[in-house]
Amino acid sequence: MNSFPGAGAGAGAPAGSSPYDPNDPNIKRVNAMMESCFGKAAVSGVMGFGMGGLFGMFMASMSYDTPFHTAGSQGGMPQSVASLPWRQQLKVGFKDMGSRSYSTAKNFGLVGLMFAGIECGIEGYRAKNDMLNGTAAGCLTGGILARSGGPTAVAGGCAAFAAFSAAIDAWLRQPKDEE
């Protein structure tokens, strides 16, 4: 019925049926990887890098509040991008977009990797799956990321990441509406 591989059993399939065999060794390997803290952290880091790249590209394309300038010649004044030929303008714009996108991707990837690894470690240590794991992981992640700003920044990063993690966890743990 579905022409896309891996698209699921389809709308007419009986409830609970799956196109995947749970005894397939590939499925078992993927499940084992996602049950390990290293696997969760690695997948979160890669997904964060990808999402950060897209977000950075979008934000760079929307950044028009300050005028572009290219570096002038040695000791010269910077040149406005609007005064450059069309191809040069595109080159400068895409180069800026790529550097901003890569920078944002690295930051999102680091946050995803750290948060998922710390949360998994806390969950394994506590042997519980509750909101406290995400809140504590958020506090530790925020504090570690803000460590170069001093103790006040560490406390602020801890509080902000913990509050955000708690809010997202509370929203995700809400009972689903039955339709």
Low-confidence stretches: none
Question: Can you tell me the overall shape?
Answer: extended
Distance between the termini: 25 Å
Q: Output the number of helix runs.
A: 5
Order of helices and strands: HHEEHHH
Overall residue-averaged pLDDT value: 84
Structural class per helix/strand content?
A: mainly alpha
Strand content: under 5%
The value of Rg in angstroms is 23 Å
Biggest sheet statistics: 2 strands, antiparallel
Helix fraction by DSSP (H/I, runs of at least 4): 55-70%
Spatial strand order of the main sheet: 1-2
Number of strands: 2
What does this entry look like structurally?
The protein has about 180 residues and is mostly helical. About 65% of the residues lie in helices and about 0% in strands. It contains five helices and two strands. The protein has helices at about 25-35, 35-60, 85-125, 130-145, 150-170, and strands spanning about 70, 80. It has a two-stranded antiparallel ribbon. A hairpin with an 8-residue loop joins strand 1 and strand 2 (about 80). Helix 1 (about 25-35) packs across helix 2. The longest helix is centred in the middle third of the chain and has 41 residues, at about 85-125. The two termini are about 25 Å apart. The mean pLDDT is about 85.
Q: Which key phrases capture this entry?
A:
mainly alpha, extended, single chain, 179 residues, two-stranded antiparallel ribbon, 2% strand
Q: How is this structure best summarized?
A:
With 179 residues, the chain is an all-alpha fold. It contains five helices and two strands. The longest helix is centred in the middle third of the chain and has 41 residues, at 86-126.
